[in-house]
Design a protein that fits this description.
22% strand; Dup_hybrid_motif; Cell_wall_metabolism_enzyme; Glucose Permease (Domain IIA); elongated; M23 family metallopeptidase; M23ase_b-sheet_dom; alpha+beta; disordered N terminus; 2 domains; metalloendopeptidase activity
Length: 237
């Protein structure tokens, strides 16, 4: 009698049993994730607190520097009464309509001038050497922005007298000093050729002229030769 073929008996698939190594790795990853997030948050809070303290110290140092500068200037002005002659209408923030419409392209800072003291010129009027280019013009001559920019400083009463500083798109700054009046305010955007102020002889000046300076920062001590810089912007004096 023929026998039947053997019947296959299904067997259950082996169940994966977690090993000690995989269990340890999983536990370590979970522990690391749970402890890293609070650690990062704590570090961020500490950095923010440190940054806030640094900003506070910086502001305090700037206030001290400003106070010392003003006190020294008052003492200097008292010793040399003719040194500082701030204009009566120096206060910033007053707008006026420009008598010269803004033009496209870069321009000279004033007109009807003759060039007097140049950059790096020696002389007894400066602490070291001259840091800008002087334009000899009559008092009240219009002063224009040489290019588009933003007013970052309007101040009165130091050696530069009444002055305006602009920041330009290429990262450079231009200064216009010894002004008799100022008609722009900090934060105001100006176009190339826009009227800023009128020339004068305020501050440490022997006569009416415009002191024009180009800087890599807004501050004294960072000046570069102004005439080559103007030529790079298409302005030839």
């Amino acid at each position: 009698m023929p026998t039947g073929l053997p019947t296959a008996v299904p067997t259950a698939a082996p169940t994966a049993v977690p090993t000690t190594a995989s269990t340890t790795a999983s536990t370590t990853a979970s522990t690391t994730a749970s402890t890293t997030a609070p650690g990062v948050a704590a570090d961020a809070r500490a950095l923010r607190a440190e940054l806030g303290q640094a900003v506070t110290r910086l502001h305090a140092a700037e206030r001290r520097r400003t106070g010392i500068r003003r006190r020294l200037w008052r003492e200097l002005a008292a010793a040399q009464p003719g040194l500082a002659r701030p204009a009566a209408d120096c206060a910033p923030g007053r707008r006026s309509r420009s008598p010269h419409p803004a033009r496209s392209g870069w321009v000279a800072p004033t007109s009807d001038y003759w060039l007097s003291a140049g950059y790096a010129a020696p002389g007894g009027h400066w602490r070291h050497r001259h840091t800008g280019q002087d334009f000899a013009v009559p008092r009240g001559t219009p002063v224009h922005a040489v290019g588009p920019g933003t007013v970052v400083l309007v101040s009165c009463g130091d050696g530069f007298g009444n002055q305006v500083v602009l920041r330009h798109r290429d990262g450079y700054f231009t200064q216009y000093a010894h002004l008799s009046r100022i008609d722009v305010r900090p934060g105001q955007r100006v176009a190339a050729g826009q009227y800023l102020a009128a020339s004068g002889a305020t501050g440490n000046a022997t006569g009416p002229h415009l002191h024009f300076e180009v800087r890599v920062t807004p501050y004294l001590g960072s000046a570069v030769p102004p005439l080559p810089w103007l030529r790079r912007h298409g302005v030839r004096l």
